[in-house]
């Protein structure tokens, strides 16, 4: 499917003023203005993130209450249970908080709920475990803000809660001793986009200050914060950019034993970036909870013995291999089902169900199906007596509202704009499928059914130099709200040396105004006739380095191309 090209713009007077102030390339200034760094001071902070830029943790509502309650536990030698969700953000939050507290307190343990037996977030089983084992204080990380009923239950049996969360609160807040969440009403904390591990990091910072500990006592876990930021797809601006920047630095210079074991197992040769954390570390950590028991992800993160860390890393690596196999098999089966469905091409939504599919990968499969059929997608499987599954949306379409409109067919549902989950009676699947299709058809626009390719700016090949690329690299870490820049070059021609490789990909050798670049375009073989036409074309790409036999050169990572309009 041909994508819609959306080429962004920037106010020329702001670009000119910034170029005057910075004395750097106009294209870089365009990128900076588009991202809100439109004066010298903002650009300086962007290019030179500093730990001194981090806000005081005491600006967060309830921070004093949280610190006082934990210090009271220290004084009375009260056992503390660290509780977190089963995903990367949750397990990295627990690993960092558990290690931090263990260094100053003798009675600390942690608890990760089982994805299928207990479900998302704070669980009754977890609270009962705390009570049975003598824990009267639970610190929940990356969950708890929506658990008012369960935390009320905990209160009734003498278990206190400190909630560290970043999800949007409901109207009714849980009766916790303290709630740390920048998104709650009345919280003046300046940066609202921290992940769960980030909120935990602020609590560790405040505790360090209160106890007179060195900054190294919490900075030791900044690599885990970077992994959580990468995996949770939060905005890579403000404090998240600073935490990610220094976290990646630690991953590359002095990683923890567990992270090093995972990197070695994945065969990492180059320096890690936020993107490689997303694709190398995060899937292996997430796979533990998807396929089996997420607790071993925490065990890996906290392990100090190299040999034991390798054993845990092997377990996660094995879970990830199982996850990939299940994901590939189910995607293939789902695509075959859709191809066999009458009038499937006329539909505005996708819903597929097979009772044998693995519950842990249905969300990933939904994303895969969108790559083929670009429309809101739900993948269901059997879970006990019911059907359960995950939904994924396309850009700009409010998936949660569409599912909410079909709630009469559901036993339960939850989620947000772009992703959701639901449970329903098996005999309701057909009616829910029809209702979801009706709602989506009524609400979705024709443009939302065509994938959009966001392009930052036009560029000429003569601008792409090693010094230009060096400045581009200083814009890292890349992620939401600071994505890797995407460029378009107009009137490019083929040199005659481009070719299809491995059936699906294209090795480009192209030129513009006498300047030639090599490039690679994955899954672009269907566009090869544009090169064979010997007519000029427009090419969309990112820029990276290619290393071959010790030689390093710049190359284009081609995303799309179209014939140049005459």
Keywords:
566 residues; alpha/beta; inorganic pyrophosphatase (n-terminal core); Diaminopimelate Epimerase, Chain A, domain 1; OB fold (Dihydrolipoamide Acetyltransferase, E2P); 3 domains; five-stranded parallel sheet; five-stranded mixed sheet; 20 helices; 19 strands
Descriptive report:
The chain is an alpha/beta fold and 566 residues long. The protein folds into three domains: 57-315, Alpha-Beta Complex (inorganic pyrophosphatase (n-terminal core)), CATH 3.90.1640.30; 341-449, Roll (Diaminopimelate Epimerase, Chain A, domain 1); 453-563, OB fold (Dihydrolipoamide Acetyltransferase, E2P). It has 20 helices and 19 strands. The chain has a five-stranded parallel sheet, sandwiched between helices. The protein has a five-stranded mixed sheet with strand order 7-8-9-11-10. Strand 18 (537-548) and strand 19 (551-563) form a beta hairpin. Helix 10 (222-232) crosses helix 13 and helix 12 (257-265) crosses helix 15 (306-339). It is globular. The model has no long low-confidence stretch (mean pLDDT 94).
Strands, helices and their partners?
Blueprint: E1 4-7, H1 12-22, H2 26-34, H3 40-47, H4 63-76, E2 80-84, H5 88-102, E3 108-111, H6 124-132, E4 137-141, H7 148-156, E5 160-164, E6 178-180, H8 196-211, H9 216-219, H10 222-232, H11 238-253, H12 257-265, H13 274-291, H14 295-302, H15 306-339, E7 350-353, H16 362-372, E8 377-383, E9 386-392, H17 399-404, E10 412-415, E11 419-425, H18 429-443, E12 452-455, E13 457-458, H19 466-473, E14 487-494, E15 499-501, E16 505-512, E17 515-521, H20 528-532, E18 537-548, E19 551-563
Parallel strand pairs: 1-12, 2-3, 2-4, 4-5, 5-6, 7-8, 13-14, 17-19
Antiparallel strand pairs: 8-9, 9-11, 10-11, 14-16, 14-18, 15-16, 16-17, 18-19
Helix pairs in contact: 1-2, 4-8, 5-8, 5-10, 5-14, 8-10, 10-11, 10-13, 12-15, 13-15, 14-15, 15-16
